[in-house]
């Protein structure tokens, strides 16, 4: 039995200690915004905030998540999260949408760390998040729009 804090709430889950956090989020807690993409931390679809920092939930065993504060796409909030979500809509980033929860969570992490990133900084920070539809230019544009919203 493991106790974890996800989206500000304590949850007790009865799973093996090596169960990836991703499967606890999706299968045990029925929070399906976080997606399975590859299982090897290469695509970013499973990105969540761990203590405010983007991490791949497919690579975190639940036994290691006990002392972490985990936020999924369902509960991102605050000024930066709102600016990113508004910019995503404004720039019509989403095409198929499968990767977008991971992209948005990663972008939130970027803007919390760097409030005015350059194109190359955006590309480097977002490089671990794959988009099957190749909306990378719209993602970059939306991050710039979000940064501008945060300035004003």
Please state the CA-atom Rg, rounded to the nearest Å. Answer: 15 Å
Number of domains: 2
Largest sheet: 5 strands, mixed
Give the overall shape: globular
Strand order of the largest sheet: 2-1-5-3-4
CATH architecture of the largest domain: Roll
Structural class: alpha+beta
Q: How many β-strand stretches?
A: 5
Low-confidence stretches: none
What's the CATH topology label of the largest domain? Ubiquitin-like (UB roll)
Q: Specify the CATH class of the largest domain.
A: Alpha Beta
Euclidean distance between termini CA atoms:
46 Å
Average of the residue pLDDT scores: 97
Strand content: 5-15%
Order of helices and strands: EEHEEEHHHH
Please, how many helices? 5
Helix content: 25-40%
Name of the CATH homologous superfamily of the largest domain: Beta-grasp domain
Structure summarized in a few sentences:
The protein has 152 residues and is of the alpha+beta class. It has helices spanning 21-28, 79-90, 100-113, 119-126, 136-151, and strands spanning 2-6, 9-13, 47-50, 53-56, 69-71. Helix content is 38%, strand content 14%.
